[in-house]
Structure to design on (153 residues):
């Protein structure tokens, strides 16, 4: 199998694309823009000040005992917060992201996720979010995102 994977890696290397031309993260017609490493997030409301939608953690994100692996929750929050920055017309960098784990986050069920701007100072966005299974708060997050200047990496 290792030999097969090496062979396929060499074959697929011929199709490698520059960052802006890749499918990963750039296919807006696919869930999560074609990213395979993030939990599924389906936005329902996206404005310059808030995002609301559903999230779903499949078996890939399983930690143990039917719960999502804890490290995947900050990944989800980072993705959700990014929608606010993009809606504001800019990409952003995560300067700080803190997650509080409140309850087990189940896999295989639709969860509600909300994120909002607490305040904005110039290019800095101070953000907050929560993830719920019905009325149960699974996790909360706060973050500082910095909107990028044109041409910034």
């Amino acid at each position: 199998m290792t030999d097969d994977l090496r062979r396929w890696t060499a074959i697929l290397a011929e199709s490698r694309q520059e960052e802006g031309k890749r499918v990963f993260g750039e296919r807006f017609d696919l869930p999560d823009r074609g990213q395979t490493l993030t939990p599924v997030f389906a936005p329902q409301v996206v404005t310059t000040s808030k995002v609301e939608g559903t999230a779903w953690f499949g078996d890939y994100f399983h930690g143990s005992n039917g719960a999502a692996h804890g490290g995947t929750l900050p990944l989800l929050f980072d993705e959700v917060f990014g929608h606010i920055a993009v809606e504001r017309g800019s990409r952003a960098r995560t300067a700080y992201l803190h997650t509080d784990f409140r309850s087990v986050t189940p896999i295989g069920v639709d969860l509600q996720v909300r994120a909002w701007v607490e305040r904005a100072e110039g290019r800095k966005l101070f953000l907050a979010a929560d993830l719920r299974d019905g009325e149960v708060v699974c996790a909360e997050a706060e973050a500082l995102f910095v909107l990028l200047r044109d041409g910034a990496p």
